Request: fold
Amino acid sequence: MEPEFQSSGDEDDTGPSSVQIQWQPVITAIKSAVRDAFDSSPSYNPSSPAALNSYWHGIFTRLAEAVASDPSIAEYLTSPPLTRFNITLYDESGAGRCPCCLSDRDPEITLEDEDGVGKGAMVLGLRDELYGKGKGGERLVFDADWMCSPERGPEGERYTHQLCYGEDADVVNIWVFWCTRERFAERVEEEREKKVREGIVVGDGSGAPVVGKRNGGTGRRKTVAR
Reply:
């Protein structure tokens, strides 16, 4: 979901110019990694969270390495590279809302690099905040959101907009949503049931496919890897 900030056209447009968003593939990689690693995740034990915390710390460490070495993902989170990047964490109650309607609070994560914030920094920043030393480890990332300018590039490129960020217009902001392990399991099951209703073949955890309706009466079936 990418809400667009619609300008009235009357504002003074003398501030910093828009920059191209390049972090979406990193967000996609994070969401996919969490979903793929969830089934093997240890259970949450509030009196001894070390196992769960260590597991997810390792997942994000390896993910950061994979993202950093993936040539299909741009080196920097924005173009031109910006030197500061804020991430604010919200529980799932904020998901689906326009970011401008979320409660105002200081970001939990600030990424800074004088040469420009790189793609691996986002993964490591989330790792350290969610699964670093002394953290509980139960918060699992399932979505993220940000504000976009209404303008698009010739190939569909999206841009930030200075009017979204006030006086700190040179600082990009992103909102990351998390839920507990128990709730994440419920979301996975809801996702599976939805796909079955839509006629998509999915796994049920037993190794055997669960088959829904045929797609459009064509006799063909979709298969979705889990």
Summary: The chain has a mean pLDDT of 77. The first helix runs from residue 24 to 38. The chain is about 30% helix and 15% strand. The beta strands are 20-21, 78-79, 84-91, 109-112, 140-145, 172-179, 200-203, 209-210, 222-223.
